[in-house]
Fold:
Amino acid sequence: MSGESVSNPTREKILEVKDLHLHFGGLQVLTDVELHLYDHELLAIIGPNGAGKTSLLNCINGFYRPQRGVIHFQGQPIHPLKPHAIAKLRISRTFQNIELYTGLNVMENLMAARHIHMKRGTLAGALFFGPGRSEELRHRDVVEEIIEFLELESVRQKIVGTLPYGVRKRVELGRALAMTPALLLLDEPMAGMNIEEKEDMARFILDVAELRQIPMMIVEHDMEVIMDISDRVLVLDFGHKIAEGPPSEIVRNQLVIQAYLGEEDAFED
Amino acid sequence: MRTEGDDPALDTLPKLLRARAAHFGTGRVAMRVKNRGIWRRYTWKDYYERTRDLCLGMVSFGFHRGDKVCILGENKPEWFWAELAAQAAGGVAVGIFTDCAPREIKYFMEHSDSTFIFAHDQEQVDKVLEIKDELPLLQKIIYWDPKGLWSYRDPELFSIEKVMAEGCRLGQERPGLFEELIDRGSAEDMGVISYTSGTTGLPRGAILSQRWLVEGTRAWSKIDGWHRGGYEYLSFIPPAWVAEQGLGIAGSLVAGICVNFPEEPETVQENIREVGPHILFYGARLWENVNRAVQARMIDSTVLRRWLFKRFLAVGLKVAERQEKKYPLTPWWSFLCWLAHQAVFRALRDRLGLTRAEVVYSAGGAISPEIIKFFLALGVEIKLFYGSTEMGIVSVPRKGEIRPEASGKPVPWAEVKISEEGEILVKSQFMYSGYYKDPEAAAKKLQDGYYRSGDFGYIDGDGYLIAIDRMEDLKPLSRGHKFSPQYTEVRLRFSPYIKDVLVLGGEQRDFVTALVNIDLDNVGRFAEAHHIPYTTFTDLSQKPEVIDLVREEISRVNRTLPEHARIQRFVNLHKEFDPDEAELTRTRKLRRSFVEERYQELVNALYSGQEEISVEAPVTYRDGRQGIIRTAIRVNPVG
Structure:
């Protein structure tokens, strides 16, 4: 599947970032970053520590306000919007350091993510009666579908704080999915996992791409997994985009090997 | 009592299903499966219609009378539909365990000449696709969980919905076809081929006829009183195993039981509590897990709760003991029993999902008698039945006849005798009909009309059958008796004071002896409580009080053994068995012959009548240093 998306200009661009500059005081974080994401595409962002990968995600979902540049989502400029307004456009994300409600159970965490779709007020929700009730049941159904999809049945009622790290990562993906996103931003979904958990997560990500056809941007350190699952890779180094292309090309790109990996054999098994 | 399932005209499972559906229609639930957090129901009519559509779909896909179909999946309604659909079409169901590797699946498919296979999900489908090209007979692969299979484009791969839609179409085209197919079935039809794991060589396919499935299960249900219907059952033992064929698939049809399917294998404990089944079947290992979970929870509990639990457990045990001995319960004991139930057992049983449990089974491996006693105290009778794929049910403890060691009395349709060598021989009305494509192997298992079980056991004075071990795992004694060292060791290891033990016998020896490893923690605690000063493990192990303690434990186990198998003499070893010295494997299994050889001097002393022996044992420390332990070891008679 890789490569196709680059050479196919007829596909709809769902996200376009142009001329993006971000600095914190004297620290230049992103310099003239340009990228686009096609519909149904899985784009990976890689780069050494401090390259600005997470900052890029933070700009897209409105946590950071870039000093210059534009971000268009589905043809609409989103860089002036507040994070909650961007979330309402159904851009959802996961975080490097899991940000769940640790005191709530898995089900409640996922239900919380449905709030942007809830129309009824607090009172109707609290009473669990009439339209409030039917709305809750409808959302519960969506959440249950995600629980099944991510194989979280056995922890459905467990408090998130008591769950192992790998499972929490999965719950976070579940929460991002519960928003029924139009764009999914995943920040290091496999960090700190063992091989089996990584394989599971890779499979879930591919399933999301295949079944739900949600375009995704993934920031990840694990090269092997990234090369396996992504359609296209974008490489950042000190805030600059230094390469972009299908994984097979990136592996051979001298600039990438020098700048990012530092040594020549890093991509080899 | 006669129920509508008794009609002799209903001699196959599909006929029973049809009768059930006609009788109950939509009025009663046949199956429940938890899906997306909700228990979804299938009435008897749904069960029948799903089976009909699937059967006709298979027929239109080229499934013929006498064809075999493999089913590879977890317990789900689809598993049951697939088996009934195959049988309705005059075919045979072959269950495969879900953890089988592709080459094992290939063997089962090849050996059974299967043309269709049902595979649960992506994982199982992948395995089948891997071996597909090596199976010339294979025509269709049918899956029921589509997750991850959206983009599979194999021409032989179909979803169950697709097959059922095809069947629905054929049903409209040729109404009455399904009825016709069912009517052509008879009691002598092959219903199931159940592969048994041969201890030597390849697995063999035991043929179970419709008669076995229907009549055999009917007889079983009456023995244990679940034929009356209206019972709930939780299905999670693998349907590829003969027990689930009898209890879950045939049993639900024969007795009109509602079968509940857990959401996932990991959610069984949770689901059991939600269902509160009347009938339950746990493997021995699972009972041990439940027991351990209870004990662990109690240790973490408050002092008051622990105290209550201990007190009332003692009451429960006492009451159970009186009931076993058929002593009448005095009003005082009845009151205590009631109090124990209200204070502790009711909540505990609810926690474990055992509130309504009436008929509870265990099989598949030795279960410690203590666990059976523990649950008996809670008022849960675990029936440790004896049987196998070939023999069917041979003996099962009846209500009020639970004895921790025994498998109850033989069932009325089976005749049991013990051979000269102590092997259990069985003649039964409901036996398998031989091995598929291997009549010689089946003939070899017969001796004067009796089936040779290969199990060693005996019948005690009250007529209870006690199965001990496989014949081939037995050790001989010089007087011609055989005994099972593992059987004794399992029971001794249940004692908190005995960590490990090697039971010895052999052709040149007249009696049984044991090398015992005391449990340092628990014996140390005992020593503290009894003000016995000690220095090292070696010192502690040779204290007269500790020797008495171990002797008592051995005597207790000895009482449950036939006379020739009782331990006569033992020593408390001066050191623990250690994987670093190759006495144990890394998974803490005893290396029997190695240990016996290593302690040759001690073993000789056990059999020569010496009372004390001084030993020097070289030890290897973890860092590789060598050392020597010198000590005097007492050789102790059990008396």
